């Protein structure tokens, strides 16, 4: 990767627009810097990050998937635990601290999100289940 080309995104979008690439300056004919394809509903991509903006059937499906993942996760072989499952690591004196650190990391990442994540693991529930 010794050769690299850098382009100005704003200039490329303006060039595309001036060449007849759309009604607006953005990649889908909207304003430069974001937006949805023209003719799309008024919802932006970032508003889909908030679970409150999702249709109820989508929220329900995501909640069901999250519950399945919550139940299965303790039995996944994880590279972070050298291929052990969290259930095995909880019983292993050498791996238990790594499991505790992994759970703390999961908790910290979830706390940093702007909205409630429907797919987030219930770390307190995992701790109780694993006995850590």
Poorly predicted tracts of residues: 23-40
The major sheet is characterized as: none
Instruction: Kindly name the structural category.
Output: mainly alpha
Helix content: 40-55%
Query: What is the 3D form?
Result: flat
Q: Number of helix segments?
A: 5
Rg, rounded, reads 22 Å
Strand tally, please? 0
What order do the SSEs take from the amino end to the carboxyl end, as H and E? HHHHH
Mean pLDDT: 76
**Oligomeric form:** single chain
Name the beta content range.
under 5%
Termini distance? 45 Å
Please describe what this structure looks like.
There is one protein chain. This protein is mostly helical. 43% of the residues lie in helices and 0% in strands. The N and C termini lie far apart (45 Å). About 14% of the residues have low confidence.
SSE topology sketch:
Layout: H1 9-18, H2 56-72, H3 86-91, H4 96-111, H5 123-130
Give the structure's gist in a few sentences.
The chain is mostly helical and about 130 residues long. It is built from five helices and no strands. The longest helix is centred in the middle third of the chain and has 17 residues.
């Amino acid at each position: 990767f010794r050769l690299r080309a850098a382009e100005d995104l704003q200039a490329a979008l303006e060039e595309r627009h001036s060449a007849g690439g759309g009604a607006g300056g953005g990649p889908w004919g909207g304003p430069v810097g974001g937006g949805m394809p023209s003719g799309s509903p008024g919802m932006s991509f970032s508003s889909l990050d908030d679970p409150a903006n999702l249709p109820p059937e989508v929220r329900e499906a995501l909640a069901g998937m999250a519950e399945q993942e919550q139940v299965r996760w303790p039995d996944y072989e994880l590279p972070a635990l050298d291929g052990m499952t969290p259930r095995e690591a909880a019983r292993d004196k050498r791996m238990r601290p790594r499991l505790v650190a992994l759970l703390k990391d999961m908790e910290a990442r979830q706390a940093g999100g702007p909205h409630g994540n429907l797919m987030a693991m219930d770390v307190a529930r995992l701790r109780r289940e694993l006995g850590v």
